[in-house]
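Researcher: Let's continue the batch. This sequence belongs to non-specific serine/threonine protein kinase, and it's 324 residues. Same format as the previous ones, please.
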Amino acid sequence: MQGIKNFFNKDECEKYYKLGKTLGQGSFATVKLSTCKADNTRWAVKIIKKSSLAPEDEDALKTEVDILERLDHVNIVKLKEVFDCPGNFYMVMEVCSGGELFDRIVEKEHYTEAEARDCLLSVVDGIRYCHAENIAHRDLKPENLLYDSDSPDATIKLADFGLAKLLDEDSMMHTACGTPGYVAPEILEGRAYGIEVDMWSIGVIAYILLCGFPPFYDDNNAALFRQIKSGRYDYPSPFWDEVSDQAKDLIDHLLVLDPKKRFTAQDVLNHPWVAKTESYHNTHLPRFRDAMKEYNARRKFRAGIMTLQVLRMLQSSDESKTPT
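Model: Same format as before. Here are the structure tokens for non-specific serine/threonine protein kinase:
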């Protein structure tokens, strides 16, 4: 990819891609399944309305593009090219039609530690690559972990680098960002932070992959953030009875309050639970599915409520403005 291509013709993207059915739609963008006319390959084209973007949003989009064009890894969604046309940006990206990680595994009748480990391995290897390139993702969560197809052997891809940051060597970040439940304690405390925040999020994801619910949860964000900052969590019975001590040991090295003592991505890949194949990894986790179904439903309901609240705030703000 060679940066953002600027065009004066609003339909320039459609010279190269046949836009098909809508895969998703939000307030600011629409994603369409598209076909490259040159070689008949399938891509997801994200159409972003310029009128919906503030100047800082446009700058953030260009930063995201700059980061994505640096990345080339099997577990990271590929950005092919970007068109800057009057009215819209068009981001041509790899298709991920297999849905979210959590939605996929909750449908499994039989689910084991080995499967949880394989899922985590894909996420960690993608983040290891990002960190080696001095890039922090800063928003690892279920919605951003996607399967590239419906195939049983589909690949997990890290998506949405909208909050990602390219760091200079040894530089720190200060912006408060992330998603409640997955955000690292140092961000909540307003401290300068580094790429270690991604490893905390991976610890939360690992915990959920093994029992079906998160280590920290409260409908009230203030209470949730107090839990996270305390760093206290447990492995309640009976949900963790079949899970190995090695798996718990890995989580205990990720959900660490001190970022400097927290496992790196390479540490995770070297850990015995990830690196070795043990027979107990194939033990079915019988309570996982029901717990995950309940958590997934609550998570999506809460996300919907949050979206409605934001929309109401925006509408209220618009109504309060004096016409000019």
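Researcher: Any comment?
Model: Confidence is low (pLDDT under 50) at residues 305-324.
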